[in-house]
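Exercise 3.2. Students should predict the tertiary structure of the chain below and write it as structure tokens, then compare their answer with the key that follows.

Predict this chain's 3D structure.
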Amino acid sequence: MWVGGGTLLAAALAGVGLAWRATRPLRAVTDTARRIVETGDLAARVPAPAGGGELAELTLQFNTVLTKNAALIGAMRETLDNLAHDLRTPLARLRGTADLALQHQGDPAASREALADCVEESERILRLLEAMMDVSAAETGAMPLHRSKFDFAELVTEAADLYREVAEDKRIGIEVATVPAPVEADPVRLRQALANLIDNALKYTPEGGRVRLAVRQEGLAVVTEMSDSGPGVPAEDRDKIWRRLYRCDASRSQRGLGLGLSLVKAIVEAHRGTVAVDAAPEGGARFTLRLPVGEGAQS
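Answer key:
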């Protein structure tokens, strides 16, 4: 009897030990989650268990979620930091100009000039906020697209023509090579995306340089390539430049909203297209925009 009882006790203890070992990965997941909640340490990860099995897969997937969340939170912090930086400058100018206007109450001309400056800085803030709202709407699928049939090549030519005067002031040549490219899309939004791309190219192309745009059709897609003779985009920044308010080191001295390229990406992807950047064969940056022609343009 005592032997039988001892055997049962040993079996029970062995079972407890096995269960403790088997659930160790689950406790590690719990401990890691508690550590993140209590300390905010987004770098914490669950140690990988020995061997394979479902618990090892659970650990791998949990760590993957933690990595993606950390990257998302990091991007959000970077966006907020950049937003604070971009809002601080116009708000400081707005405050300084308003103070100046109050100091010149007896000079109507100076007061009008100060008020005009206030309006300009206010519009800059509004453009920043409106652009951020446009990006958010496009990324969440809430941006309304008013599609119609038109020749995308003509839209590219019109967008380039709008910037020729700006280009001539910097002695930058704009070259356009197109073929007929019918699409069914939102011409207003795509004109906005093209304008941002061309404006970005002219901003970073040095005096005497050139910007080239080419449109071609590849099957059921219209492909637009825009290259410039500027400094190009470093390889390590090519995935980052599409983030809201992101600026690589080479662009910190350039004035702008920092939302142009993120809005381009959002508009293009709202049309189920893609946009990417690489190095142009002759130096500089090359942006490649690919759009589906749309059902109505296939006939």
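Discussion points: The helical segments are 2-22, 24-39, 54-103, 108-139, 152-162, 164-169, 187-204, 260-270. The longest strand covers residues 210-218.
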